[in-house]
Design goal:
Radius of gyration: 22 Å
Shape: elongated
């Protein structure tokens, strides 16, 4: 973690503030602390249609298990059964 330091910048006539090329094209969250202070934090955004996974502990565990098995080269020798897969998907809770 970098040591805290003060950086002076001037906001342009369009209300823009630049903080350096190393942050170009990054997403940030800006929290207004008061009338003269803002906290800028780097952020990652999860698409709405993928956010369900982060709210579903059972699904997260199943995904993590599948990733581990794939890394270890453990794959099923049986072809997928789409009817069973559809039933499993229907059992997962949607938030």
């Amino acid at each position: 973690m970098a040591k805290a330091r003060n950086i002076t910048r001037t906001i342009d006539n369009n209300g823009r503030l630049t903080i350096g090329r190393q942050y170009a094209n990054r997403t940030v969250v800006i929290k207004q602390l008061n009338d003269s202070e803002f906290l800028v934090s780097l952020a990652r955004v999860i698409p709405e249609n993928e956010a369900w996974l982060f709210r579903n502990e059972k699904a997260q565990k199943l995904v993590a298990k599948g990733i581990t098995e794939a890394r270890e080269g453990r794959f099923s020798s049986d072809p997928p059964n789409l009817d069973e897969d559809i039933q499993l998907v229907e059992q997962l809770e949607d938030d």
